[in-house]
Recover the amino acids of this structure.
């Protein structure tokens, strides 16, 4: 029976499709100006990013921030508010600025080389609330073409789609995971000075072995993860219906402790939806038996002074609703699924205690885009 | 309007008959019939050579041929592969105008003869260019994946015929798209010619008697497609003897039977095949636990010899597929556990042959065809399935009159086809997530009047002259959308909508389709051919994927989408060496097709009521040189061919980016493959076994590589501007088969079994089906998708009982 099984396996293993890396470079030509940003009806907007994709003669590409531009948000094509470049290529809204439902918005860019770019104006639509969220543990949630598989929680939402209006949706999530390690030192030891951050001091022996020590947080701390998936849906087939169990994201199993999710549902324009879908079709969902011919990812940015300059990306104007969801991970614990940890896949290694009772020190939890010491709103316990 | 058109056609028909009959008082014609001496079955495709006038004829599908009084009492030789050539004298008694020629099977050389290509000799003699006839017995011997005899894969060994790869849902003939080929099985159309998403042909090979691929000059009795016609005939059942054959392979089980019901009068042939072996898949790998695939097909032909002047044939074909895979995408709005494809073809065709006189025949055909592909989405957490239904209904009546007059073999006829197309309905059933959606149905009527004359002029020149006049009416009920002229067809450019009621003509197209073939016999061994062909296509498949999906929609020409018109000029030379042991051929062609279908960037047709907003029309030019050499006799037989061909498209509907592709200049079409080489060799080892080899090579087909990178939401995406700017790697593959016949070696056994061991892709070449890019961890990685990446051995068993 076993031989017969191997016979079938041998016969059929060559039959089915397989995917292999393909060693072929492609020649890039012409720079591309890219815009990325979302304006919604909620404050705390992320900055607008403007980048340049620059080809080199060897065929490789470098993506650099477009710095030194004067960037404005236009409301109803009349009001003009400048965004501030706090980091290269990142143009920030005023912290209290938010969009108003029913108004149109566009971005105007006066680049330092004199070129002027503008996005097509879009009207900020009404947000649509999320009715409820559920999750299911999928042991094969993450798969790549090399055959690597890891588990994750798939998120599903119920949404009552407004009837009679064309709605397109984009979902993103923000995950708060309790973090117990606030500092890691490679090839050295952590010291609390100089305040407030402290520093890693190199040690020859630790360096030789490339040793990493981790240090516990001195206060409660949370790591913040933002989704990089682009998950969209159009109500073309479901206008006015209850959209039941719509897939809105998947979360890796970092650790067994429960976590908090902020799921943002953006109501976007049909044009934004088409752009995102095309990006996914051409960059993520490729490799099937029936791929479609590629198309230019033009987006909604245009160069007004030189139409030959390629542009891409999208400045999305969206109605946003947020749903806080407590992610219960007991199922992952019960099934003993493998966790990735919060240190990029490696296990925690604390500096061992010794005769010096002041060591190891605790590390501060420093606020940033990916970490916070402020208890997230909605956090349980 | 439809009624007036029909009446007009009938008036022309009667006029034609009247004119022909007025002259029927001229020279008397005679008919012969070539038959198998044992079974008395007609032998279509037999070659009849008239030694006195050095003329050649090919027997038609009833085994008939014709000749004149001046060929009476003169020697003729009659030959066909698998039979001993017969030389006789045409000494018909004055009272009769027909006589029967019975040929004996050539059992001594049967295997060697049968394994030849079969009919290049016949093709050599015909004035028509670009026609290939294939012997199904030859295809049976060629190695194929998993031991499944495959008509379409066999055809790809011919010059000018290719596909996008192993999983391709059709053929590309001389750089054309798959929907530009009309595939007929006993006169009924096949809209989806493959099973398992392109892996296997949908034709029951054991039920087929012969097939002809017209890729150059298409006889005027065929219309509706611009690149080629593949005319496949089922076998006629024996009127005297019961026969059964069948087999089992890695993929399917099949059986065929010929059953005489009333001796010498009524018989039926049934051929069926089924594949239900997908239970193996989860055993192979847990990855395949969600993959399912079953298919089946059954064909039958009932033959009724009413009397000496009338025969009736009733053919039936049913094909069914069920396929579940993740490789073809899904519908996001439905939270489904899988995506399933279920499709079937139901064809019925009837033919009535009536001998009106000693020299005239009337043939009337009726066809009813239905193709229904569905997408099923089982919802998670319920028994409900959301279904997307589509379908094509096709009804045809065709009648043709054939007469031998003087030196001319004339045919004239009328043809009418009614189309009823459902582009798609979404049926939620119990789903609360999706709403029911119906797209506007399409109706059309295509009619044709055709005429042809095959004759010989001064012994050296054979002429096949034909004319087809076709008309197409797109009918209501429907809405016509008028857009601003010269602008993109978008909602913002919509000017007005007009609604027309049932059977009102929304738009009609018509035109003539000349078909001309000339063959000049330079000497008895060498001939030169020249041809011209114009074809119009009113029905096209709308699909912008690598290969059309089984569920890709079909679309009739209408107010916004014009029919395709293709003109082909071709010329060639054929040489027969060493008494038909070797046949050499060279053919060049140039084809220009107006109003081909192409797609706006990012086109999406799914459940779209107005697909013209996603379509563009342009032109294609294809040209090529096809060289072929075949060996017909001896222990080793086979052929090699080399083709140089190009297929280039140009789309420039307007000045906006959405109206042009590649700035409106010519670019390589998806099926552009400049070089291809095919070789098949069969080495006979006596009566009981032979070896077969196939080798194929072709330039990789075009694909689009990015010209920049875009970073968005922490992902890298490819930025494309120019389409089809690179090629996938060249394709090459060697296959091997060892066929063992009747291993018990008892010639008197009524039951004989044959084994076929084959290895497809002998040296395990990892041919790329496609090249694609995938954004992973902020890097854009190129990959190639391979369908068959290693050698595939298989074993198949066939039996025959008679």
């Amino acid at each position: 029976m076993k031989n017969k099984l191997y016979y079938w396996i041998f016969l059929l293993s060559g039959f089915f499709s397989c995917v292999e890396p393909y060693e072929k470079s492609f020649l890039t030509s012409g720079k591309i100006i890219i815009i990325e940003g979302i304006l919604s009806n909620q404050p705390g907007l992320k900055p607008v990013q403007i980048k340049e994709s620059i080809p080199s003669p060897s065929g490789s590409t470098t993506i650099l921030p477009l710095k030194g531009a004067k960037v404005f948000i236009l409301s109803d094509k009349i009001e003009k508010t400048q965004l501030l470049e706090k980091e290269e290529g990142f143009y920030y809204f005023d912290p209290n600025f938010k969009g108003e439902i029913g108004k149109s918005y566009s971005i105007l860019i006066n680049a330092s080389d004199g070129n002027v770019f503008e996005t097509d104006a879009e009207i900020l639509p009404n947000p649509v609330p999320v009715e409820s969220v559920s999750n299911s543990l999928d042991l094969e949630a993450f798969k790549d073409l090399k055959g690597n598989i890891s588990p994750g929680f798939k998120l599903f939402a119920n949404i009552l789609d407004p009837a009679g209006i064309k709605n397109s949706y984009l979902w993103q999530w923000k995950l708060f995971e309790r973090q117990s390690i606030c500092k890691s030192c490679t090839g050295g030891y952590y010291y609390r000075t100089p305040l407030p951050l402290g520093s890693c001091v190199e040690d020859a022996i630790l360096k030789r072995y490339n040793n990493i020590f981790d240090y516990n947080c001195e206060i409660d701390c949370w790591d913040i993860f933002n989704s990089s998936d682009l998950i969209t849906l159009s109500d073309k087939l479901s206008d006015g219906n209850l959209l039941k169990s719509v897939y809105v994201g998947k979360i890796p199993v970092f650790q067994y402790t429960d976590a908090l999710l902020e799921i943002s549902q953006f109501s976007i324009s049909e044009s934004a939806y088409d752009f995102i879908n095309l990006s996914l079709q051409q960059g993520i969902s490729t490799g099937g038996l029936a791929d479609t011919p590629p198309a230019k990812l033009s987006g909604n940015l245009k160069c007004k002074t030189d139409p030959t300059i390629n542009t891409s990306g999208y400045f999305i104007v969206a109605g946003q609703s947020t749903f806080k969801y407590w992610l219960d991970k007991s199922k992952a614990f019960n099934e003993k699924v493998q966790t990735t940890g919060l240190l990029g896949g490696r296990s925690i290694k604390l500096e061992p205690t010794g005769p010096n009772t002041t060591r190891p020190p605790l590390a501060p939890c420093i606020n940033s885009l990916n970490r916070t010491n402020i208890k997230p709103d909605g956090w349980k316990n | 309007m439809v009624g007036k058109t029909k009446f007009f056609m009938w008036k022309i028909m009667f006029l034609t008959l009247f004119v022909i009959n007025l002259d029927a008082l001229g020279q008397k014609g005679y008919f012969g019939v070539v038959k198998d001496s044992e079974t008395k079955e007609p032998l279509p495709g037999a070659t009849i050579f008239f030694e006195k006038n050095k003329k050649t004829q090919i027997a038609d599908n009833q085994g008939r041929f014709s000749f004149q009084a001046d060929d009476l009492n003169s020697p003729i030789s009659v030959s066909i592969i698998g039979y001993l050539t017969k030389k006789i004298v045409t000494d018909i008694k004055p009272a009769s105008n027909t006589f029967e020629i019975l040929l004996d099977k050539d059992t001594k050389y049967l295997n060697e003869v049968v394994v030849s290509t079969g009919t290049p000799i016949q093709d050599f003699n015909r004035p028509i260019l670009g026609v290939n006839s294939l012997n199904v017995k030859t295809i049976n011997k060629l190695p194929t994946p998993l031991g499944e005899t495959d008509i379409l894969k066999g055809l790809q060994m011919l010059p000018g015929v290719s596909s996008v790869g192993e999983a391709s849902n059709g053929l590309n003939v001389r750089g054309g798209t798959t929907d530009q080929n009309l595939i007929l099985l006993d006169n009924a159309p096949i809209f989806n010619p493959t099973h398992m998403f392109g892996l296997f042909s949908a034709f029951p090979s054991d039920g087929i008697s012969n097939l002809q691929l017209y890729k150059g000059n298409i006889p005027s009795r065929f219309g509706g497609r611009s690149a080629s016609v593949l005319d496949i005939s089922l076998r006629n059942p024996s009127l005297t003897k019961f026969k059964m054959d069948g087999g089992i392979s890695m993929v399917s089980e099949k059986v065929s039977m010929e059953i005489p019901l009333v001796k010498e009068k009524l018989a039926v042939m049934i051929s069926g095949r089924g594949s239900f072996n997908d239970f193996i898949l989860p055993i192979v790998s847990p990855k395949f636990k969600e993959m399912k695939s079953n298919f089946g097909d059954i064909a039958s032909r009932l033959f009724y010899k009413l009397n000496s002047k009338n025969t009736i044939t009733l053919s039936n074909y049913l094909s069914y597929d069920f396929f579940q895979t993740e490789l073809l995408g899904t519908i996001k709005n439905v939270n489904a556990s899988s995506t399933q494809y279920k499709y079937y073809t139901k064809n019925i065709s009837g033919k009535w042959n009536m001998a009106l006189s000693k020299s005239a025949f009337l043939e009337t055909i009726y066809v009813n065809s239905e193709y229904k592909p569905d997408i099923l989405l089982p919802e998670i957490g319920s028994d409900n399935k959301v279904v997307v239904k589509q379908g094509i209904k096709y009804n045809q009546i065709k009648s043709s009159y054939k007469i031998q007059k003087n030196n001319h073999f004339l045919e004239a006829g009328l043809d009418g086809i009614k189309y009823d197309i459902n582009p798609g309905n979404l049926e939620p059933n119990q789903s609360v997530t999706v709403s029911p959606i119906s797209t506007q149905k399409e109706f059309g009527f295509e009619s044709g009047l055709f005429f042809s004359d095959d004759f010989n002029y001064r012994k050296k020149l054979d002429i096949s002259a034909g004319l087809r006049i076709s008309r197409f009416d797109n009918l209501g009920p429907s809405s016509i959308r008028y857009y601003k002229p010269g602008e993109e067809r978008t909602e913002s450019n919509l000017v007005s909508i007009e609604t027309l009621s049932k059977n009102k003509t929304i738009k009609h197209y018509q035109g003539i389709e000349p078909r001309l073939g000339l063959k000049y016999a330079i000497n008895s061994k060498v001939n030169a051919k020249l041809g011209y062909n114009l074809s119009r296509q009113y029905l096209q498949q709308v699909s912008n994927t690598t290969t059309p999906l089984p569920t890709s929609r079909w679309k009739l020409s209408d107010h916004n989408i014009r029919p395709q018109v293709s003109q082909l000029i071709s010329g060639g030379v054929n040489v027969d060496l060493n008494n038909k042991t070797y046949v050499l051929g060279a053919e060049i062609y140039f084809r220009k097709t107006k109003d081909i279908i192409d797609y706006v960037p990012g086109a999406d047709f799914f459940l779209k009521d107005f697909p013209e907003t996603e379509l563009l029309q342009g032109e294609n030019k294809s040209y090529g040189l096809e060289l072929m050499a075949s060996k017909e006799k001896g222990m080793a037989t086979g052929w090699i061919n080399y083709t140089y061909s190009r297929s280039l498209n140009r789309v420039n509907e307007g000045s906006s980016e959405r109206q042009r592709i590649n700035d409106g200049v010519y670019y390589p079409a998806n099926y552009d493959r400049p070089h291809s080489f095919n070789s098949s060799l069969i080495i006979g080892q006596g009566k009981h076994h032979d070896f077969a080899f196939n080798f194929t090579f072709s330039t990789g087909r075009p694909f689009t590589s990015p010209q920049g990178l875009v970073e968005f939401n922490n992902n890298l995406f490819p930025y494309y501007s120019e389409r089809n700017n690179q090629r996938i790697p060249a394709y090459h593959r060697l296959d091997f088969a060892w066929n063992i016949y009747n291993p018990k070696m008892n010639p008197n056994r009524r039951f004989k079994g044959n084994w076929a061991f084959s290895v497809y892709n002998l040296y395990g070449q990892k041919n790329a089906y496609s090249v694609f890019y995938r954004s992973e961890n902020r890097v854009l990685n190129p990959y190639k998708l391979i369908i068959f990446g290693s050698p595939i051995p298989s074993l198949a068993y066939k039996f025959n009982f008679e």
Summary: The first helix of chain A runs from residue 2 to 13. Chain A touches chain B through 77 residues (CB under 8 Å). The CA atoms of residues 278 and 295 of chain A lie 8 Å apart. Residues 32-124+286-317 of chain A form one domain.
